[in-house]
Amino acid sequence: MARLTTDFWVAAYRARLQLASIPAFVTAKGDATAGAVLVKLNTLDGEAICFQRSFDLQSGTRAWVVLAQGPERDVDASIAKQRSFDADLWVIEVEDRDGRHLLDEDGLDT
Fold first, then answer.
1. For residue 39, how many other CB atoms are within 10 A of its CB?
2. Residue 73, exposed/middle/buried by CB under 10 A (0-12, 13-18, 19+)?
3. Are the C-beta atoms of 99 and 47 separated by less than 8 Å?
4. Global pTM?
5. For the chain, domain boundaries
6. C-beta separation of 83 from 107 below 8 A
7. 62, 8 in Cβ contact below 8 A?
8. Residue 82 is inside which H or E element, if any?
9. Nearest C-alpha neighbor of 74 from the set 96, 54, 48
10. 67 three-class SS
11. pLDDT on residue 55
12. What is the DSSP letter of 2?
């Protein structure tokens, strides 16, 4: 199966969020073809969660896992640390008081 470019996946993800009336912003743009993506969920109460994609070597599946969770400033520091050694990294900030991020929906695992 062909892989989607990162910029195409980001555009599709943002469109899906927009259809659900969930604001999202690209706060760091990485490599358009193959950059990794972090998704920061800001619940607008001073807390945040950062998700990254993980690949399971045994099953061959991909899943979104929590990279950092807690006070927003701590999550931001974790993201900054990741960006310090990966200039190709994309960061998308999703803002939703209800904690919706849609990463668990079909089609967003590609």
1. 24
2. exposed
3. no
4. 0.91
5. 6-95
6. no
7. no
8. helix 72-85
9. 48
10. strand
11. 82
12. P
The residues with which 62 forms a beta bridge, in sequence order, are 55
Determine the pLDDT at residue 61: 78
Overall size of the chain counted in residues: 110
First and final C-alpha spacing in the chain: 10
What is the spatial distance between Cα 65 and Cα 67, in angstroms, rounded to a whole number? 6
* Alpha carbon of residue 52 to chain centroid: 6
Q: What is the CATH number of domain 6-95?
A: 3.40.1530.20
Q: Which residue has the tokens 């803002």?
A: 95
Residues 90 and 36: beta-carbon distance below 8 Å: yes
What is the per-residue pLDDT for 71?
98
- Taking alpha carbons only, the member of 77, 105, 89, 110 closest to residue 34 is 89
